[in-house]
Amino acid sequence: MIVITNPFFIKDEIQILHSLLEEGVSLLHIRKPDFSEAEMAQFIHQIKLEFRNKLVLHNHYDLAEDFGINRFHLSEKERDVLNQFHARFSKRCEFLSTSTHSIEDFNSLENEFDYAFLSPVFKSISKENYQPKTDLFEALKLRKNYTTKVIALGGIDSQNIQKTLEKGFDDVALLGSIWNNENPIKQFKLCQKIAHSHSQSPV
């Protein structure tokens, strides 16, 4: 299960992130769009070495080598300059993900993407007035790309994880359900338990 950091400052954030990682977060996307490179370096420096292999950078990719990070996430706009990205970071980047907002975009992805977010699946918890324009569960029936894993993002919480996975998404990413909750760790463990029970259920 993937967790994305809150884009804004969170009290005791590093401590919470360590707890989430210890509880079994598979990948942690570091999304801090307003951070300078120095601020990003300071932030990553606080995360324990044992968890660096689970970190995914959304920007400031030049920091990857210093911190032993080999996972990168590209926005839709950055996919337009994919060749330039490879020219600079191909030696460092071993895992690549991206964001999509339609099944057409997802189906057209290059094979080199390990997984892609498809969003918003539900009304966003963290963004106001951000909700689906189309039914992505219906759209998923038109999936042609099975090389790239499709990850549900947008409004994912403990109430809808099971439905999301049953409808064909490979995994889910949590953001608002974690950071808008009074107890992020408890909420993650609940979501994780539901996801695990789905993966273990007979098909």
Biggest pleated-sheet summary: 8 strands, parallel
Mean pLDDT: 93
Q: Given the structure, what is the number of helices?
A: 10
* Order of H and E elements: EHEHEHEHHEHEHEHEHH
Structure description:
The structure is a single chain. The protein has 203 residues and is α/β, with parallel strands linked by helices. It is built from ten helices and eight strands. Helix content is 35%, strand content 16%. Strands 3-2-1-8-7-6-5-4 form an eight-stranded parallel β-sheet. The protein has a single domain (2-198), classed as Alpha-Beta Barrel (TIM Barrel), CATH 3.20.20. It has helices spanning 13-22, 37-45, 64-67, 76-79, 82-89, 103-107, 136-139, 161-166, 176-179, 184-200, and strands spanning 2-4, 27-30, 55-57, 71-74, 95-100, 115-118, 149-152, 171-174.
Give a brief outline of the structure.
By secondary structure, this protein is an alpha/beta fold.
Layout of helices and strands, plus pairs?
Layout: E1 2-4, H1 13-22, E2 27-30, H2 37-45, E3 55-57, H3 64-67, E4 71-74, H4 76-79, H5 82-89, E5 95-100, H6 103-107, E6 115-118, H7 136-139, E7 149-152, H8 161-166, E8 171-174, H9 176-179, H10 184-200
Features:
203 residues; alpha/beta; TIM Barrel; 16% strand; globular
